[in-house]
Every structure is written in C-alpha cells, then in structure tokens.
Write a structure and sequence with these properties.
Elements: E1 2-6, E2 11-16, E3 19-25, H1 26-32, E4 37-40, E5 44-46, E6 49-51, H2 54-58, H3 69-72, H4 79-83, H5 89-104, E7 108-112, H6 118-127, E8 130-132, E9 167-170, H7 175-181, E10 186-191, E11 194-198
Parallel strand pairs: 1-4, 6-7, 7-8
Antiparallel strand pairs: 1-2, 2-3, 5-9, 9-10, 10-11
Helix pairs in contact: 5-6
C-alpha cells in the first residue's frame, strides 16, 4: 500500500514498502496518488539522524531491562559498572535491542561503525536501522541523542525517489529549534518503510 507521510510545512514523502516512491509538496503527491493513505505529523519531516557512536552505545554499553532498574538503574552502564556484569550473548542481544529502541525514539535512522559482537550485529541487522562506515573513533560523548554528543550532527542524504524509506519527524518549527531541543522532540521514526517509533 502506498502511504504519504507529511509534515506541518506540507513537505511529504510517498512510501511503498521499503522505498521512497516520490518526495515533494503534499498537494502534489496526493494529486498524483489520490488513493494513497495520508499520515500527517506535527513538526518537520527530516531524513533522520546518524548516530556516530554505534559500537560505543551498543557494544560498550549495557542498557538495563526495566526489570533490572531497582538494581542497575535505567541509564546505560559503561566502564567499571559494565565490567562488573556477567553478560552472555543472549543478554547482549537484548541490551542492544533496548538501546536501538531508545535510539529510534530519538530520530536515529542510522548508526556509524562496525560491530564485532555477533548478538549485537544481529540485533542491528534485524532492526533495519542503517549502518554507515566511519574513518575512526569519533570524539565527543557517546549519547543516544546525537545532539548531546558535542559533535556536529549528521543527517543522511535527503530522501529521494528510489531511496530507502528511513526518515524521522520532529515536533519543532524548524532546524534551529531541532538543534535546540534535540532528538527528544521526535514524533515518529520510519525505518525500512515501517513505523518503528511513534510518540504516544
């Protein structure tokens, strides 16, 4: 089924399956595809965010299960706190899935880096999130929200016809407000044509 995703500014993407069929003004796309389902979102539609710290956040951090909150807290564990844990492959995979969900909730549609932990690599692949290379270990502070890393925020190339349907909508007026409010303003994240996060 063809779905048109539109933002408050009237910018829109027509998506079929995992691919962007067309991009442009909402009126133009609905005119060309009158039977398409239209989903309107508050804020601005963007190509989403690329998180530069993929391995640091998913292989070098443990994301506690909510059932572990009383013992481990809710924030990712690193350093000595991570070393003190006994983590098998299944537990690493579950941690990575939770970390990925938290990244998607902040508008990340891709992560940079390579993954050597098999369970983590499998979780990344199954999530559908994009994976990009990087020239080395980036500076900054690993953060689920790239705006909190202290590095320039990277967006994937603009969504065009024939590209993978990966994008995010943020409930802000413009890019300047997005930079100020960060990924926490994410309304919806779409990966491989599927809504993988939607703010309730």
């Amino acid at each position: 089924m063809l779905t048109i995703h539109a933002d408050s500014r009237g910018r829109a993407l027509a998506v079929r399956g995992e691919w962007v069929l067309a991009s442009g003004p909402l009126e133009e796309l609905t005119g060309a595809h009158p039977l398409a389902r239209v989903r309107s979102w508050p804020g601005i539609l963007t190509s989403g965010l690329v998180n530069p710290h993929g391995p640091e956040l998913l292989e070098q951090s443990y994301h506690p299960d909510p059932r572990e909150a009383a013992e481990l807290g809710t924030e990712p564990l690193t350093g000595d706190a991570l070393t003190a844990l006994v983590i098998d492959e299944a537990r690493w995979g579950a941690s990575a899935r939770r970390g990925l969900h938290r990244m998607l909730a902040r508008g990340n549609v891709a992560v940079a880096g390579t993954f050597s932990n098999r369970a983590v690599a499998t979780a990344v692949r199954r999530s559908g999130i994009g994976v990009t290379g990087r020239p080395g270990v980036p500076g900054g502070v690993p953060c689920l929200d790239p705006f909190g890393s202290g590095l320039p925020v990277d967006f994937p190339p603009a969504r065009e016809s024939g590209s993978a349907a990966r994008f995010a909508v943020f409930d802000v007026r413009d890019e300047a407000e997005l930079a100020e409010r960060g990924g926490g303003s994410c309304v919806v994240t779409v990966v491989a044509g599927r809504i993988v996060f939607r703010r309730k």
